[in-house]
Amino acid sequence: MSKQYFSLEPARFKLDGGAMFGIIPKPLWSKVHPADEMNRIELALRLIVIKSGSKNILIDTGIGDYHGEKFDQRFAVVGGASPLEKALAEIQLRPEDITDLVISHLHFDHVGGIGKMVDGKMEPVLKNAIVHLHQKHYEYSHHPTERDSGSFHFDDFNPVLEWYKEQHQIHFLEGIEGEILPGLKFMCSMGHTPYLLHPYDDKFIYMADLIPTSNHVSIPWVMGYDISPGVTTKDKFHFLSFINDKKLAMIFEHDPVYFGSTVKKNEKGEFVCAQKLPYEPRGAYPIFLS
Asked: What mean pLDDT comes out for the span 124-149?
């Protein structure tokens, strides 16, 4: 069955550059990802849509539009009202056309677009979708550590997930790897957050926050947000080896310049980007992965 792949950017935002690059000194990371006067760097909120037969599969949802002016200013959110709906419209899809939603993890910038505020209550945006979510990560989101609890906007996403459960439209995934849907598998990493889900097929793998940008491919370049940075380095080596062996394209969820890249080893035996795939700032566009 033929597939069509689309990259969507419902919004962009900014996070602290030091937090995004962890122990890497600013004189190094700022050369490749310059910061603003508040030390924040611009980041994409990149989603993937796969059209395959009767299926319209969406991976992640972006940040949403209901957080308020103070939040939007703090994180320099640029997206406007109904950002997910507008992004889908660019590829001639309506929210009700999405048959499957794959959630990498439940941090606010990945699951925020799952709901919208209607009369003071959160309602689902994608009412016909089956939600694919890792069971263990869902459980962790109910009891995160104090270090990462601010990343889980539980009161926003949980009412929507409860609605999906009541409608029997949630598919909980288990294990470190497995199948989401026919032709779409997953692997989990554990360093950024427990059971971070990475969907993949024979062409691409969605890196989410394991390798959020092309500047995070180098194994020591790990975010300060990660719960277990040492585990992340092991995860990255395992994933990059897999990607290299399978000749997959990595999709970077947060890179504002490149939506993806293939990988290779340099003369030192280190993993580096091979063919970078540039983002074209004209809205949605098909991904042709050879």
From this structure: 97
- Distance (Å, rounded) from C-alpha 91 to C-alpha 79? 17
The type of residue at 167 is Q
DSSP 104-162: S---HHHHGGGEEEETTEEEES-TTPEEEEEHHHHHHHHS--TTTGGG--HHHHHHHHH
Q: What CATH number has the domain spanning 3-287?
A: 3.60.15.10
Band of pLDDT at residue 175, cut at 50, 70 and 90: very high
Can you give the pTM of this predicted structure? 0.96
Task: Report d(CA 210, CA 189) in Å as an integer.
Answer: 7
Please tell me the total number of residues recorded for the chain in this structure. Answer: 290
Q: Is the pLDDT of residue 214 over 60?
A: yes
| Run of H or E residues at 136 | helix 135-142
